[in-house]
Write a structure and sequence with these properties.
The structure is a single chain. By secondary structure, this protein is mostly beta strands. It has one domain: Head decoration protein D (Virus Head Decoration Protein, Chain: A, Beta Barrel), CATH 2.40.300. It is built from no helices and ten strands. The radius of gyration is 13 Å and the shape is globular. The mean pLDDT is 90.
Length: 126
């Protein structure tokens, strides 16, 4: 089973120590851990220290660090801590889980951070 596939990535300078945040979401505006799906630009692929360059995956099949248990096919969003969690009403959807994963584990998903979808309660159903 593959865990990563073709994806698009770019680099951004880390403005905090991101060494322990690999596979969490990163914000473009400040090079730090993202607070939600709206500010997230992608998933951190390496382990940069402060001022080093971070490799960030923005679209494709990527690994992610789960902030909660996530079921297969579940739409994904970004939690305040940069962890990836299941999306609900009022969240920005950045991807979909390709397999079930437990909290704190590394999962795999299909992501597109270029234009996150806002999940409104009237048009969003599981």
């Amino acid at each position: 089973m593959t865990v990563e596939n073709k994806y698009f990535a770019f680099t951004v300078q880390a403005l905090e120590d991101l060494n322990s945040h690999q596979y969490q979401a990163i914000a473009l505006d400040d090079g730090k851990v993202a607070n939600d799906g709206d500010e997230a630009i992608g998933i951190l692929l390496n382990k940069p220290k402060n001022t080093e360059f971070a490799s960030v995956g923005i679209t494709g099949i990527l690994k992610y660090r789960a902030g909660e248990a996530v079921a297969i096919h579940k739409p994904l969003t970004v939690a305040t801590s940069g962890y990836i969690t299941g999306a609900g009403s009022g969240d920005y959807i950045v991807g979909r889980a390709l397999a079930a994963v437990t909290s704190g584990s590394i999962g795999k998903g299909v992501f597109d951070f270029t234009k996150p979808i806002y999940a409104m309660s009237s048009s969003f159903a599981w």
